[in-house]
Amino acid sequence: MKGMFSMFLCCVALLTTGVGCETQEPEGGKPTTAITFEQSVLTVEGDAASHLVYFSLDKRVEGLDVEPQCDAEWVSDMKVVASVLSFKVTKNEERLPREAELVLTYGDATAKMRLVQNEATRRFDLFPFYNNSDIPYRIPAVAVTNNGTILACADYRHSGADIGVIDKGRIDLHIRRSSDNGVTWDNITPIIEGQGAHSPDFMNVGYGDPCIVADRESSRVLLMSCAGNVSYHAGTRNRHQNIARFYSDDGGMTWGKPTDIAESIYSKFDNCSYGPVNAMFIASGRVMQSRTVKVADYYRLYCAIIMRDRSGSPKNAVLFSDNFGESWDVLGGVSKAALSGNCDEPKVEELPDGSILLSSRCNGGRNFNIFKFTDVASGSGQWGSPTISGINNGGVEARDNSTNGEVMLIPAVRTEDGANVDLLLQSVPLGPGRANVGIYYKALESAADYASSSKIAQDWEDVYQVTKLNSAYSTMTWQADGRLAFLWEETTYCEGLPPYGGYTIVYDCFTLDKLTGGKYTYRKE
């Protein structure tokens, strides 16, 4: 009878054992019980911190204590009080997440839980703005070279305002580089320094609003910016901002002198139905390089412009170049603008089928449109009908603000079912106002998901909030180590003076797993 009773106890213990719980047959008639962690895996951030986890016992035995154990050196001070296990972790200085096993023993029963610690944050104040007596920074741009070096640049605004708002207002362009995926950065250096009131000509007064791309197969880098001594809103066909083009042939270490390419682009619109245009500039941030279209030595480049037509109405168009920015053409021609009216600074991305997605800032969200090719080589095709993405269609909501952000497509795997998808990202300040920058995401599973702008605009899956502070422009690109490099403007130390403000330009990087709470992981192609 005693043997049968012992077997019965073992069966009960096995049936009541929870996640990661093991029970053993009691020896010598010792009382037994089941111990269970409330979760099988705990993921914590990479900084040094204290943590708590909960467990349960089906019954307690007098004189028997729960014994915690972990063999990992980075886990310490394990203590049990009631049904709570507390412990500390050290900062994870490794470049990858690390794992350990937490074990609780209670008599003959054990419970196990997997502990995952992400790497420590790489957040870094690239271009700091500490107080209102400092020269303010604004407008981040970012690229990754063919050897993996991250290039980050921004305006250094002696004038405290946009190009041309202050007469002869000086603005410089500054750059920093990281050769180890954002772990460390070199010093701030100038790409070019505006001459302000001492400029011998119109163009060299100031340079601002940079956009940048690094060729994926060579060490060549292209940077473009606004330049001159007139504001965008005061521009006319005969007196407008320059479009400065810079090249580096050593991965962003050194830069050639700028060339003004404005006339070669303005002239394309002179004889169109809404031309000539009075003013334009190329939106700051990331210039997009095609994944599929290659002509001679280079994959195609795309960038997007905001312009004011001859009546003063805003319009967007997309430019493309097959010679790495030496010359540019208008995608689809000039007869029909990509967006008209409700549009502002635009960004561009290539969809999985090669179509081109335009994402333009507008109050409350984004305005999307899609270009479908009829002939890729010539850039012929047509724009569809635009759709606003915002609170009314479950889209990208930028509450009470209209702010420049970045759009990007990343190959991914959905962890729930292992399906290959393309994850579309869009950054905006979540609001209210210019605050709480975050990154929205949604999965594109098939061509039906991007068949029209309305499909793109609606039903975004979720958003990752990057900061809780006042924050504005943002941009992103993909790092060589499989992480998203993200730059944004933030009032880290002070608010900046209105109306143009001043921000600290902050860098951080995220895995897709972290960005999506474990829903997606990066799919290397």
What does this protein structure show overall?
The structure is a single chain. With 525 residues, this protein is mostly beta strands. The protein folds into two domains: 2-117, Sandwich (Immunoglobulin-like); 124-522, Neuraminidase (6 Propeller). Helices cover 6% and strands 44% of the residues. The strands form eight sheets. Strands 19, 21, 22, 23, 24 and 25 form a six-stranded antiparallel sheet that branches.
Under CATH, the topology of the largest domain can be stated as: Neuraminidase
The poorly predicted ranges are 1-26
Indicate the proportion of strand residues: 35-45%
Radius of gyration equals: 28 Å
Number of spatially distinct domains: 2
Mean pLDDT: 93
CATH second-level architecture of the largest domain: 6 Propeller
Helical/strand content category: mainly beta
Largest sheet: 6 strands, antiparallel
What separation lies between the terminal Cα atoms?
64 Å
